[in-house]
Each structure stands twice: as structure tokens, then as C-alpha cells.
Amino acid sequence: MRLLCCPEPAHGCTLKSKRQRRRERQERRYRQWFHQYEVEYFIRREYPHCPEAAVLYYARSICTDPKNWGGVSIEAAVDMTMQNHLRHEFTDYDQLLMVGVRRKDARRRIQPKVKAMIASWKELGAIITEPSNIKT
Asked: Which comes out higher in pLDDT, residue 123 or 111?
């Protein structure tokens, strides 16, 4: 039996079952917000010195980890993911937390190192995009 939401079947709209509505909610909740090729392209363009293994790692992480990136730009997602990974893997951030340093203070202490790593990956971009060294 087909349940109609309005008396005229010409509209073609039907009421959905609980199972269908639940499935649609789950699909919206877990849908992939970004495609891996888009994220890879963005990272390669904005961070030209970023190692290829890191590009693939960040793109896969952004696209497959169950996060809700709704309403977030690719730029913000890449920035958050890079900073989080660099903070935990390449600094003494976790050790600072373990010895009792407050989270805010620990982040403040290691932030210059994280920013320096990200800036070193961006370095080439500034050279390429600057037209002042090209003579016409």
C-alpha cells in the first residue's frame, strides 16, 4: 500500500517509512563531505613543500574519519587536521599535558613550532605566486 502525503496522487509525494527516514538521517550524518581528490589538490596547491605521504595521509584522514565537516571549508578542515596531527605527533604537547600543564598553556607553548612547520610547507607558494620577478 502506498501512503500519500496529499490527496492528489499527481504530486507524486509519498510518506516515508520509519526505516527510510532513519536511513536517510544516517546517510546525511555519515556522508563524505569532501572528496579525496579535492583535498589532495588543495593541499598540493596551498602547501607545495608538504611531503607526498603527508598529503595523502591528511586527505584520507579528512575524507574517511567520521567527522561532521558540514559548513566547514576545505581550507578550515585541512588547517584543523594538520595542526592537530603536528601538535600530537611532532611536539611535546602530550608530555606537557601529562605533567599537569593546562591545555591552553600547552597549546600556546607549542604553537610557534606547529606554525613554523606549516609555514615551511607553504614557503614555495609565495615564490611562485609573486609576479614581481617576471619581466614583460
From this structure: 111
